[in-house]
């Protein structure tokens, strides 16, 4: 389509035209307009258009909706304080409003499976939340599309049996193999482990000691067998697998042997380089970028980006960080803005088999965000999912 198109919309089609925008396309950022028909991008053109009813974006960026692979933000809504359980459906709606407002149109809610001494009913809560997400989707109560990411704690006895009933769920798009036992990976320094659980749950020293002893015993007894069993389960069902908090090249090599294709939050440059050599996609934390480093003392995400070791960003525990990190990296590294946006749109979508979204191209689902640059942080001004305004 050429600039200054005057074609009239077809009255039989549900059409929306967005004009006077800076389009974030796969090959770069430039002035243009987008035509949406029946929830799908129909045309992407250069320059403006005088189609009657076109929405003037006043020079703001128009980008694909963000795709989030690993957010545990839902947990703060389900359990807003230690010992406080909130009804699942209203909790999900509150979480969803926050996600959509951050420009995230597709989210894999990362829910943990693995009971522990701190939260004894964790697996019951998991089932309740998964059911509530499905119900909210059926009732068209959600702004963003919610899919499922199972965060599986491998030290837990009988883990594969707990995961298996959910393996046929069409919402399930990713399983990550995690080990948060003290002395392992992210928590190699046991004092860091103590600070985390003391701060999150207000756990006493005696409780922490008992919890640490049990987790270490369970990890020694079950972690290796659980990794193998979950890998077999997921590979048989073509569910992508991620490793979590890889720290050494040995961790990465073990994951590669199991069929893992994604390395989530490698804690060292050594692990990230090994993951790259193994052909794994590397995910780093957007909060790490925005804060200027890891809160746990791990490798800085910006360092990975500058080394060419960053394929995808995840907001993890701060939804608004996903978009913010794109502009922080642009400023810090001078990287191309379109390439940085790909790490929060196209790349994560393709990593979990979603091929119908993530790019401003004809035929892609019209998940779109209007963004205005500001010195402190970008502002999400409008959000559309499948051509419908949701925020």
Short characterization:
The chain contains 13 helices and 16 strands. The chain has 391 residues and is of the alpha/beta class. α4 links the parallel β8 and β9.
User: Unreliable stretches, pLDDT < 50, 5 or more residues?
Assistant: 1-12
What separation lies between the terminal Cα atoms?
A: 28 Å
CATH domain class: Alpha Beta
Kindly state the percentage of residues in helix: 25-40%
Q: Which topology does CATH recognise? A: TIM Barrel
Provide structural commentary:
This protein has 391 residues and is α/β, with parallel strands linked by helices. It is 36% helix and 24% strand. Strands 1, 2, 3, 4, 5, 14, 15 and 16 form an eight-stranded mixed beta sheet that branches. An eight-stranded parallel beta sheet has the order 6-7-8-9-10-11-12-13. Helix 8 (269-277) links the parallel strand 11 (262-264) and strand 12. Helix 2 (88-101) packs across helix 3 (122-138) and helix 7 (249-258) runs parallel beside helix 8. The chain is globular and about 70 Å long. The two termini are 28 Å apart. Residues 1-12 have low confidence and may be disordered.
What attributes characterize this protein structure?
TIM Barrel; 391 residues; 13 helices; alpha/beta; eight-stranded parallel β-sheet; single chain
Topology diagram in text:
Blueprint: E1 15-25, E2 28-37, E3 40-46, E4 55-56, E5 61-64, E6 66-71, H1 74-78, H2 88-101, E7 104-113, H3 122-138, E8 145-153, H4 159-163, E9 172-178, H5 190-201, H6 205-236, E10 241-244, H7 249-258, E11 262-264, H8 269-277, E12 281-285, H9 286-291, H10 301-306, E13 312-314, H11 321-333, H12 337-342, H13 346-351, E14 368-372, E15 379-385, E16 388-389
Parallel strand pairs: 1-4, 1-5, 6-7, 7-8, 8-9, 9-10, 10-11, 11-12, 12-13
Antiparallel strand pairs: 1-2, 2-3, 5-14, 14-15, 15-16
């Amino acid at each position: 389509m050429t600039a200054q198109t005057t074609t009239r919309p077809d009255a039989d089609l549900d059409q929306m035209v967005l004009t006077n925008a800076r389009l974030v396309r796969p090959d770069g950022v430039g002035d243009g307009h987008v035509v949406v028909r029946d929830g799908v991008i129909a045309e992407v053109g250069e320059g403006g258009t005088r189609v009657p009813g076109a929405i003037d974006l006043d020079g703001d960026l128009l980008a694909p909706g963000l795709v989030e692979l690993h957010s545990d933000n839902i947990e703060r809504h389900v359990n807003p304080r230690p010992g406080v359980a909130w009804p699942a459906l209203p909790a999900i709606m509150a979480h969803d409003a926050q996600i959509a407002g951050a420009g995230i149109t597709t989210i894999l809610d990362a829910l943990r499976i693995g009971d522990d001494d701190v939260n004894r009913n964790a697996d019951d809560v998991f089932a309740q939340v998964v059911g509530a997400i499905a119900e909210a989707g059926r009732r068209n109560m959600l702004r963003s599309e919610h899919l499922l990411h199972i965060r599986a704690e491998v030290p837990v006895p009988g883990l594969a049996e707990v995961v298996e009933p959910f393996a046929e769920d069409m919402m399930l798009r990713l399983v990550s193999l995690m080990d948060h036992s003290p002395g392992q990976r992210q928590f190699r320094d046991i004092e860091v482990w103590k600070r985390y659980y003391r701060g999150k749950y207000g756990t006493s020293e005696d409780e922490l000691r008992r919890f640490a002893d049990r987790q270490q015993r369970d990890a020694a007894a079950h972690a290796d067998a659980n990794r193998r069993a979950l890998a077999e389960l997921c590979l048989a069902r073509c569910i992508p697998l991620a490793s979590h908090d890889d720290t050494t090249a040995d961790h990465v090599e073990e994951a590669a042997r199991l069929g893992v294709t994604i390395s989530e939050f490698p804690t060292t440059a050594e692990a990230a380089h090994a993951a790259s050599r193994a052909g794994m996609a590397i995910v780093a934390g957007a909060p790490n970028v925005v804060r200027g480093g890891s809160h746990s003392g791990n490798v800085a995400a910006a360092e990975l980006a500058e080394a060419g070791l960053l394929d995808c960003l995840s907001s993890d525990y701060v939804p608004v960080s996903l978009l913010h990190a794109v502009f922080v990296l642009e400023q810090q590294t001078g990287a191309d803005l379109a390439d940085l946006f790909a790490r929060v749109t196209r790349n994560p979508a393709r990593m979990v088999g979603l091929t119908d979204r993530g790019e401003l191209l004809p035929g892609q689902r019209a998940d779109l965000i209007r963004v205005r640059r500001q010195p402190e942080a970008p502002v999400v001004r409008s959000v559309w999912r499948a051509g419908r305004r949701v925020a």
